[in-house]
Amino acid sequence: MTYRYTKIIALSLLTASAVGNTAAPVVDGKAVEAIQQYQENDQNQLVGELMRQVMQLQQEVSYLRGKSEEQGYQIQKLQRQQKELYADLDRRLTEASQGGLSGAELSGTEGGESTGGADASDQNLSDAQQAYNKAFSQFSNKEYAFAKSSFKSFVKDYPKHPLAANAHYILGQLHSNDKEYQQAAFEFEAVYSQFPETEIKDKAMLKLAQTHELSGNKAEAKKTYQALVKAFPNTTAGKLAKVKLGSL
C-alpha cells in the first residue's frame, strides 16, 4: 500500500517537473507590428470612406439649398409679375369703365346743338336737355351729391329719354364711388336692359361685372364677364372681360 502511494507521488512529481520545464510560447514582434499596422490601415480606410461620404452629403445639401433658393427666387419673381399683371389689368379695367365715355358723350346734345351751360333760361334747349345739363355740370364740377340727386330726378322725369342711358351710367359710377354697390349694379344693369340700342351697353356690362367683384360677389361678376365676352367679343370691354375671367 505504501509502495503504491509512493509510486503515484513520484509520477506526479515527474509530470510537474516536465510541465515546469516547458518553455512559454514566444510571440514574434514583427507579427504584432503587422497586425497593428493592418488594423490601423483598416481604420484609416474606414475613416476615409466616412469622410468622403460626409463631404458628398455636404455637397448634395449645398446643391439642393442652392436649387431651393433659386426656385424660391423664381417663385417670388413669378408672384411679383402676376401681381403686376393683375394691377395693370385692374387699372385698364378702371380706365375702360370710367374713360369709356368721353366728356362729350356723357354731356349729351340734342338736335346737334351745343349743350352750353346749365342755364334753364336758354330757350333753345328742351326741359329734358336743360335738366340733364344741370346734372352733368354738377358732376363735372365734382359736386357729386348734387349731381346724384339731379340725375335721379332726370331718370324719374324722363325715363325714356335717349340721355337717360347716360344718366343711369353716371349714377352707377357715383353709387360705386360711395361703395353703394347694390344701387350701382341696379343703375348699370338699367343701361343695357332698358336701352338695348345704346352704344354704351358693353361698357355698362363691364362696370356691372366690376361692381359685383368689388362687392365680393364673384359668382355674379364671372357670370356678367362671360355674358359680356359672348355678346361683345371684339370690343375693348369684351377683350378686357375675357382677360379678367382668367383671374377669377
Automatic annotation (TrEMBL):
Mediates coordination of peptidoglycan synthesis and outer membrane constriction during cell division. Belongs to the CpoB family. Residues 96-123 are annotated as: Disordered. It comes from Kangiella geojedonensis. PROSITE patterns: TPR. TPR repeats lie at residues 165-198. GO terms for biological process: FtsZ-dependent cytokinesis; protein trimerization. Residues 1-23 form the signal peptide. Keywords: Cell cycle, Cell division, Periplasm, Signal, TPR repeat. This is Cell division coordinator CpoB. Residues 43-99 form the YbgF trimerisation domain. GO terms for cellular component: outer membrane-bounded periplasmic space. InterPro entries: CpoB (IPR034706), CpoB_C (IPR014162), TPR-like_helical_dom_sf (IPR011990), TPR_rpt (IPR019734), YbgF_tri (IPR032519). It is found in: Periplasm. It holds the Pfam family TPR_6. The gene is cpoB.
